Amino acid sequence: MTDAGGQGPRKTAGRGARAVAKARAAAPGLRTFSDYRREWLVKDVVAGVVLTTLLVPQGMAYAELAGLPAINGLYTSVLCLLAYAVFGPSRILVLGPDSSLGPMIAATVLPLAAAGGDSGRAVALASVLALLVGAVMVLASVAKLGFIADLISKPTMIGYMNGLALTILIGQLPKLCGLSTDADGLLGEVSGFARGLADGKVVPAALAVGAGGVVLILVLQRWLPKVPAVLVMVLLAMASTSLFGLADRGVGLVGSLPTGFPPLSVPHVAWDDLAPLCAGAVGIALVSLADTISNASAFAARTGQEVQGNKEMHAIGAANLAAGLFQGFPVSTSGSRTAVAERAGARTQLTGVVGAVLIIVMLVLFPGLFRSLPQPALAAVVVTAALSLADLTGTVRLWQRRRTEFALSVAAFLGVALLGVLPGIAVAVGLSILNVFRRAWWPYNTVLGRVPGLEGYHDVRSYPDADHLPGLVIHRFDAPLFFANAKAFRDEVLRLSHGEPPPRWILVAAEPVTDVDTTAAEVLADLRTALDGRRVRLVFAELKDPVLRRLDTYGLTRAFGADRFFPTVESAVDAYRAGTGAAWTAAGPPPGPGTDGGPRRAG
Q1: Minimal CA–CA distance to 123: which of 287, 379, 357, 323?
Q2: Domains defined along the chain, listed by start
Q3: Which of 188, 294, 449, 568 is deepest in the core (most CB within 10 A)?
């Protein structure tokens, strides 16, 4: 029934409209397809076909990099592409198995009991890992924690990726040469590979295929970037299997893949496995998020879209949940595959849907299509991906521009190389956080002077001949005052007060001081008492209103007196000159940088 005014139908229509709006907000891909243009169809289909030529070999290669059967890389590719097409906010971003996550997955899954010798158990563990990563991502998106990606600074990420690239490269060398090692860790793998070489276990045909594949991919990517280098290498490697009888020469082949697609299933693992899986999931989620935000930002800038960090997290979480329910493993975005889709003319996520459908068709109708693909060819795909992870140019740039950040990069590199992939990400995050703390603990601080012809007051390190007022030291401390640096501030001000001749005023140019905590407030109160005893007046200029209110709460404004707080440095200088009659002089800088006992400088 409806009321006389027909409110019932209108309310129903309103609820339906709100439900549709919520669905479109939760699943941005539905909005894209509802606004789809007919002229995009051909471009999306063509791009999907081109993308599939990269998805298949990379999916299989990265699955084996993660210590899993190659077929699971294809299952993973299908589910994450379909899930992101529904939930992803980006029109062209491509998800899938990733070279940067492979070693992390292997480091989490393979050490667990019997995982190394039981592929079924390894798959179950990897699927649970994908579900955990998905849950972490979805919960983080609900809590709007996209900023967590900023926990890894650029220098530490460069070092982490360089270490990851070296780890992958060393780990693939035995497979590239047709031999196997049981070593664990980078140094163990290097030692095992060296023993294999010394014992003459290298398979010449495997080495020829693997090394030739690496060279071919690199040459094509460098000189013919529009040619699908990975596909060309794979086709030539498969052709060489028949032409040269590689199987008879000791070269391992992929073989026929299982027919069909796995059913929806919830993987089962022991309760004891959940703790290490959760730890791995957090690290993988962090790297995946950082990778996703960086890739999304790069391609959004080129297409005029805005990056929606929390929606990206939600979409990546949905993709991992979908993969985990169909024998998949954790996924991330791929810059290389997204670039291929973009160059091929992709307009929407229909490109990924086409790729997923083609992989399913291959699995159902042509499971033996890649049976003659040599294993060293897959190793070549992984090796070239590892080389693309390394950023030697960025490392050199850090050395040239800032040695402290270069040192952080090297420390992150060593953390991955010597401790392992998962401890390496913990080292990278820890170093990034410690670097932030270091900058706040030992901030830059300096003395200011007047420079003729320049407005304002300037760092005497940059202008050593700057004018000064006798008896006045203008000190700037570039950080909030809190428990970790309050004593450093106190010590520096006391050092300045011991100059010869002793200053009458120490003026703190406090514009960079964005906060004062209770510990720092007590230090300031004690510092005022100590300086008053030496007849040195401590005054402040340009304190922000929130900081002044905080000082008033602490009772410091009353303890110091209102006449010690000035709105600008200029007004404080004018007050000093009015009270002392001092005149500007260039007879030499006050105690500070360039003199005995200059202030400490960090950063």
Answers
A1: 323
A2: 23-432 (no CATH), 444-580 (3.30.750.24)
A3: 449
Question: Distance (Å, rounded) from C-alpha 426 to C-alpha 429?
Answer: 5
HSE on the CB side for 54, CA within 13 Å? 26
Show the tokens assigned to 122.
């390894």
| H or E segment and range at residue 129 | helix 119-142
Contacts 24+ apart (CB under 8 A), 221-225: 221/384
pTM across the whole model: 0.77
How many CA within 13 A on the CB side of residue 400? 6
Helices then strands, each counted (H, E), the chain: 23, 8
Cβ within 8 Å of residue 448, ≥6 positions away:
457, 458, 459, 460, 466, 474, 475, 476, 509, 569
Angle between helices 274-303 and 102-109 (to 10 degrees): 170
Across 15-29, 79-93, 308-322, 332-346, least confident range = 15-29
- pLDDT of 408-430, one tens digit each? 899 989 998 888 888 888 888 88
| Distance of alpha carbon 475 from alpha carbon 538, whole angstroms | 10
pLDDT digits (tens, 9 = 90+) for 294-311: 777 767 666 666 667 788
Cβ(523)–Cβ(531) under 8 Å? no
The rounded radius of gyration (Å) of the Cα atoms in the chain is 31
Closest to 259 (Cα-Cα) out of 344, 363, 383: 363
Residue type, 169: L
pLDDT digits (tens, 9 = 90+) for 241-297: 999 999 999 999 998 889 888 999 999 998 999 999 999 999 999 888 888 877 777
Question: Dihedrals φ, ψ of 183, to 5°?
Answer: -75, 160
Q: What six digits make up the tokens of 5? A: 């005014």
CA-wise closest residue to 463 among 474, 471, 472: 474
How many CB atoms are closer than 10 A to CB 46?
15
Are 385 and 218 spatial neighbours (Cβ–Cβ below 8 Å)?
no
Residue with tokens 């097409």, as numbered in its chain:
85
> Distances in Å between the alpha carbon of 349 and those of 21, 30, 37, 75, 89?
20, 10, 13, 18, 10
Cβ contact 43:345 at 8 Å: yes
Contact 444, 478 (CB under 8 A): yes
Q: Which burial class, exposed, middle or buried, applies to 408 when counting CB atoms under 10 A from its CB (0-12, 13-18, 19+)?
A: buried
Residue with tokens 């047709």: 178
Q: Which helix (H) or strand (E) holds 96?
A: strand 95-96
Encode burial over 63-93: b for 16+ CB neighbours within 10 A, e otherwise.
bbbbbbbbbbbbbbbbbbbbbbbbbbbbbbb
Q: What is the pLDDT of residue 266?
A: 92
In whole angstroms, how far apart are CA 419 and each of 163, 167, 536? 10, 11, 53
Give yes or no for a contact between 466 and 579, defined as CB atoms under 8 angstroms apart.
Answer: no
